[in-house]
Design brief:
By secondary structure, the protein is an alpha/beta fold. The protein folds into 2 domains: about 130 residues, no CATH class; about 170 residues, Restriction Endonuclease, CATH 3.40.91. Helix content is about 40%, strand content about 15%. It has a 5-stranded mixed β-sheet, with helices on both faces. It has a 3-stranded antiparallel β-sheet with strand order 1-2-3. The longest helix is centred in the middle third of the chain and has 16 residues. The chain is elongated, with a radius of gyration of 23 Å. The protein starts with a helix and ends in a 13-residue tail after the last helix. This is Restriction endonuclease. It comes from Kribbella jiaozuonensis. Keywords: Endonuclease, Hydrolase, Nuclease. GO terms for molecular function: endonuclease activity.
Length: about 325
């Protein structure tokens, strides 16, 4: 990803504190700034603005998720730049700093905003995709994140399949960079052809992969007789075959295309036996196309992407939340 040189120089001026309500940073404090965002960049004594602009260009060249996203390191740059503790008396809530930042980012199709956690995030205006600094679902969670994870777990215990799809999976996959995320006839049971959702993902090379998704509310097992609330893997097998074999129409290109990969998502556990049964039942080419996600995967991804919990999940815990006119994620 590349930003215009003019944008880079303006961002560098903000980091150096040469303009507006941004604190002035000398050479040592610039090095400290980049240390705070977990990088090893050290100012070499040259012109501060030019050095910072060149460093930002290197950061933007780091790997990232694709269209509508910036590298996580750059997201940390924005969060550190807009740290609320750097506010001045004249710019208490940092509206002037935010306006100046957005005047530059608008040139690149991005917008910065403060979420309810008082951290600053970047949104890609065209796709409404958010770049958060850390998306590793295997990292240790904070106490607040663990509480949110438990709230979502409790919500999933009582959620229907439609709730799972509409309130949890659609926002989650949109946030993770998938686009054209479309629910296909789940409520009326019409024209599903084995999939509840179809979507696509653009690789950094601009090639497009298509995904189908089959969601089940409860546990997915391989028992001969499944308990109430659980789904049997034989049913999922048939739906996976339908999903992989049936074309979908992409209105953006005006063509019918086959699904490249199939997500099998369960609101409960997917047992090892169920995974193995499907793997054995499909041929080698189809087997490589299957991706499994169970409840723990959903919970971890939902938390690290910092998505707002469904309203029912919050009200069920007796929490009253008034979202702003535009939700944070």
């Amino acid at each position: 990803m590349r930003f215009k040189r003019r944008t880079m120089m303006q961002l560098a001026d903000m980091i150096c504190g040469n303009v507006g309500p941004f604190p002035y940073r000398s050479s040592s404090y610039i090095t400290e700034f980049f240390s705070d965002i977990e990088t090893d960049y050290t100012h070499d004594g040259t012109t501060r603005q030019r050095w910072v602009a060149e460093t930002l260009e290197k950061i933007l060249e780091e790997p990232h998720a694709g269209t509508g996203k910036v590298p996580p390191t750059f997201a940390r740059v924005i969060q550190r730049l807009m740290d609320p503790t750097d506010a001045t008396d004249e710019d208490d809530q940092r509206p002037a700093a935010l306006a100046m930042l957005n005047a530059s980012l608008a040139r690149e199709g991005f917008e910065a905003y403060y979420a309810p956690d008082r951290q600053c995030y970047l949104r890609h205006v065209a796709t409404n995709t958010i770049t958060a600094p850390e998306h590793n679902p295997h990292r240790p969670f904070s106490a607040t994140e663990l509480e949110r994870r438990q709230q979502l777990r409790t919500y999933l215990d009582g959620a229907s399949e439609d709730d799972l799809i509409e309130d949890v999976l659609l926002p989650l996959f949109r946030q993770m960079g998938f686009h054209r995320v479309t629910a296909t006839g789940h409520k009326d049971k019409a024209l599903e052809y084995g999939k509840d959702v179809w979507m696509k993902f653009t690789l950094p090379t601009q090639h497009v992969l298509y995904f189908g998704l089959q969601a089940k509310k409860g546990k997915l097992d391989a028992a001969g007789v499944s308990r109430a609330g659980n789904a049997n893997v034989a049913e999922i097998h048939n739906q996976a075959l339908m999903m992989l074999g049936h074309e979908i129409f992409d209105p953006e290109i005006g063509k019918r295309v086959l699904v490249d990969h199939a997500f099998i998502v369960a609101g409960g556990e997917i047992t090892k036996q169920a995974r193995a049964w499907i793997g054995n039942a499909l041929d080698a080419s189809q087997r490589r196309s299957i991706i499994f996600m169970d409840r723990n995967d959903i919970l971890d991804l939902y938390v690290v992407n910092n998505l707002p919990l469904p309203t029912a999940a919050l009200s069920g815990w007796g929490v009253q939340v008034a979202w702003p006119d535009e939700p944070p994620f």
